[in-house]
Amino acid sequence: MLPVIDLADLDTPAGRERLREITHHVGFFYLDGHGVDRRLLDGVFSVAREFFALPEESKMSIAMIDSPHFRGYNRVGGELTNGEIDWREQIDIGPERDPVPDATDYLRLQGPNQWPAALPALKSTIEQFDAALAEVGMRLLRHWAASLDADPGIFDDAFAHAPATLIKVVRYPARPSDDHTGEQGVGAHKDSGVLTLLLLEPGSTGLQVESEDGSWIDAPARTGSFLVNIGELLEVATGGYLRATRHRVLTPAGAPERLSVPYFLNPALDATVPTITLPPHLASRARGVERDPANPLYRTYGENAWKSRTRAHPDVFRRWYPKEAGCKLD
């Protein structure tokens, strides 16, 4: 069982120390006491079910393939992890902004969302969800900084202008009991941003977190809690004292339908995460930033995000940026 942290406990030195040690070793925990209205969370699930129940043509009217900013809907099989197809459908939503004029590289991720005309409530509900979770996420970041003997506001500047939050509304369809073609709901991966707040449908199972010894820990939904994990940028900022943790979702034969809504708290696309100078007693335990040639980690958020988005959605990459896609994906 993953640990449980109450947000109110982090106002104490002992609570912050516990936060630091949990995320040094595990990188995941359940968050209670977050203060987000349960009615809002229920509303997110309600509007998600309405969206996924729309006719296919309504959902495909906002297909991600039509967005150069990697926004919109992907049908089952429309996203890849580690080059393998994920068994889920989803809509990807970011901050509602105008595109950057003459943008290159990762700045092309900024732009408008696509919203289904048949479900106007989706936009208003997600905007409320975004505002509520941004507040919780920034509180957590300040507590993490304080736990590492840094200025609690050390991350504030990176989020002060145009933070590049990403929200996914995800449905894992039930897998038939006679379907033995695979069990990847989403493949093992790390999150490319700073931290993730995951809203899981009550009663759902299938999510697993990799432990320090390489085994997998089940992370079922916990009613009223968010599941929180650190992302690659926090690993970079802390020199590996905090380590982003791989996680996956399994949907074996007979797995029921489930919903999840991950909220990725990210700074501005062009923001560079600060380096936290750890005190000696913590620096001696830092493992360094993981070196994986197949997954380089960048200090600028946009570079890390561009890496992840173009790999997960090569069809979008090829359509809108064919020259680069040809170079990178051959």
Question: How do the strands and helices of this protein lay out in sequence?
Answer:
Blueprint: E1 4-6, H1 13-25, E2 28-32, H2 38-52, H3 56-60, E3 72-74, E4 80-81, E5 84-85, E6 89-93, H4 121-147, H5 156-160, E7 166-172, E8 184-189, E9 195-200, E10 207-210, E11 216-218, E12 226-230, H6 232-237, E13 247-250, E14 258-265, H7 280-283, H8 301-312, H9 314-320, H10 322-329
Parallel strand pairs: 1-2
Antiparallel strand pairs: 2-12, 3-6, 4-5, 6-7, 7-14, 8-13, 9-12, 9-14, 10-11, 10-13
Helix pairs in contact: 1-4, 2-4, 9-10
What does this structure look like?
The structure is a single chain. The chain is of the alpha+beta class. 31% of the residues lie in helices and 19% in strands. It has helices spanning 13-25, 38-52, 56-60, 121-147, 156-160, 232-237, 280-283, 301-312, 314-320, 322-329, and strands at 4-6, 28-32, 72-74, 80-81, 84-85, 89-93, 166-172, 184-189, 195-200, 207-210, 216-218, 226-230, 247-250, 258-265. The strands form 3 sheets. The protein has an 8-stranded mixed β-sheet. A 4-stranded antiparallel β-sheet has the order 8-13-10-11, with no helix packed on it. A hairpin with a 2-residue loop joins strand 4 and strand 5. The longest helix has 27 residues, at 121-147.
